[in-house]
Amino acid sequence: MKWYGRFRAALAAAALTALGTAAQAGPIMDQVRSRGTLICGINTGVAGFALPDARGVWQGLDVDLCRGLAIAIFNDASKVRFVPLSSSTRFTALGSGEVDVLFRTSTMTMLRDTTLGLRSLVPYFYDGHGFIVRNSLNVRQVRELNGATICLIQGTTNEQVTADYFRSVNVPFTPVVFERTDQAAIALQAGRCDAFGTDASQLAAVRSTMQRPADWTILPERFSKEPYGAYIRRGDDEWFDLIRWYTYALIEAEELGITAANAEEMRRTSNNANVRRLLGATPELGQSIKLDAAWAYNAIRAIGNYGELYERTMGERTPVGLPRGQNNLWTNGGLMYALPMR
Q1: How does DSSP classify residue 233?
Q2: How sure is the predictor about 14, in pLDDT bands with cuts at 50, 70 and 90?
Q3: Which pTM does this prediction carry?
Q4: Which runs of consecutive H residues, i.e. helices, occur in 152-210?
């Protein structure tokens, strides 16, 4: 069977040659490289995901995912421009080319993926719809909000989830719809609404910024699946591949124990074939998506693996204070799982 071994070796060499000599990396990648900047759509302001700090610098999980992607492409975190977008304008802005990618607390749904001319990619955060209420209401279950006024955000899945639930239990409510989360939070604290319905992570973010967080309770019930994923425009397979595997790379790094602090040493000394591939000690992963061999290594060394991102922006030691839960690795009882990177 020596001929078979030679055949496989020749086939692998031909594949790598084809990858290395590809004329283009796809229209969006070509535009990004020509422009010299990645344009990333983010939230207008939700703690833990995207919120300016005291110096006006954007911070959060979505923001760091954008920075990491810029590093994977350019090896330069400064080559990203953030465009804050409301829920009702985000997909229009992406479809029109105003941004290259959305990392913007956007639930992956079938109709969004099949009817808007867009593609959703890989879940990077798992959530569920919930409600926050003032403690003084003495509400323990959502169905007790009979006739309540509920703050909601326009253009979100939460509008439909709320209406569907209250209709199913034959309980009336009055929606008050806002363009942005911060507007709903202000109205809630001012007493214009009895409750606020949105994803639980965003409820925790809202509570963390209130004057008296202890006065508010996030009710324990969850009414939907809300997996967040990046969105891009349809029709560019190379751009799809890059962002898909970039997201998996951060999860894979945590699975392999690669951190921002040890990435350099592991690239230099590890004998693990998966580690060597991911960190670019061997070039095939970078070649397959038309990037430098060190694309994932550069991103991980700068922003960390997925677990580091989560704990820094959303974790229990942050004001948002969310346990990993379903956002933990599959080996720790969560849902985070990277497809094999080989």
Answers
A1: E
A2: very low
A3: 0.87
A4: 157-168, 181-189, 200-208
